[in-house]
Amino acid sequence: MRILITNDDGINAPGLQVLQEIATTLAGPRGEVWIVAPAFEQSGVAHCISYAHPTMVAQLDDRRYATEGSPADCVLAAVCDIMTDAPPDLVLSGVNRGNNSGENAMYSGTIGGAMEAALQGLPAIALSQYLGPETSDLADPFEAARRHGAAVVRRLLDHGDWTSDADFRLFYNINFPPVPAASVRGVRVAAQGRRQGTKFRVVPYTAPNGRRFMWAAGGAQNAPARAGTDVAVNLDGFVSVTPMRADLTCHDSLAEMGSLFDDDISCQERAAGNP
């Protein structure tokens, strides 16, 4: 198996090393693991691409590249330039330092990398390690992802829904819970949730020269979410697996809204003298 890995924490991030171990296990002795990752941290860039300026790509070693762009840029660089002789069989993005459950998914560069891979028609999975009080004193805060990651991904590869005939191909978001590896209670397929009573915000700051800046800050990561969603199962000690698509349509509302503007359009046409 030929696997591409990327992340949003940067090419020297410890989570990328964990993902390389997972990918190497999955690829097997005859497989290949390619790394194309941001030169610097790109957390919070979501599915951003460097559309308005060029992106430098540097080869650091055999099958190891760094770009000055986002995770989505890294996937584009791999598919359209670095690996054009043979595309990857699988794209893995992560392992993110911190969870990408709940509302975090909307901001995540880790998920952005997997999403771009899916848009390119490739099987893709994002992986993130939830952090909390039970992981803060561990010698390896990625312990749960390191020990259980390959098995969860392999189960998805063997039994997941990898249909590609839809308008937007499925990809998967995996979050490992904020507990030691031995305390992981299992795996749950869960919908994306949202933490209640908390949200992203900015913290203003005035520099010594009088100029105004701001820091973006997340909300409490242990805030409750609806039962059965990714946040809830993660906080209960389970790995969450969430199927996703790059389709932001609210399909539940389409039928109800179908005739919402029919009368207005007819009135406008009659006013313009059209029959």
Automatic annotation (TrEMBL):
Cofactor annotation remark: Binds 1 divalent metal cation per subunit.
The protein's name in its UniProt record: 5'-nucleotidase SurE
One Gene Ontology term of the molecular function aspect: 3'-nucleotidase activity
Enzyme class, UniProt record, top EC level: hydrolase
Keywords: Cytoplasm, Hydrolase, Metal-binding, Nucleotide-binding
Function: Nucleotidase that shows phosphatase activity on nucleoside 5'-monophosphates.
Pfam families, per the entry: SurE
Family the UniProt entry places it in: Belongs to the SurE nucleotidase family.
Catalytic activity: a ribonucleoside 5'-phosphate + H2O = a ribonucleoside + phosphate
Entry GO CC: cytoplasm
Cofactor names: a divalent metal cation
EC id: 3.1.3.5
InterPro entries: SurE, SurE-like_Pase/nucleotidase, SurE-like_sf
Cross-referenced PANTHER family: 5'-NUCLEOTIDASE SURE, 5'_3'-NUCLEOTIDASE SURE
Residue sites binding a divalent metal cation per the record: D8, D9, S43, N96
Subcellular location: Cytoplasm
Keyword Cytoplasm tagged: yes
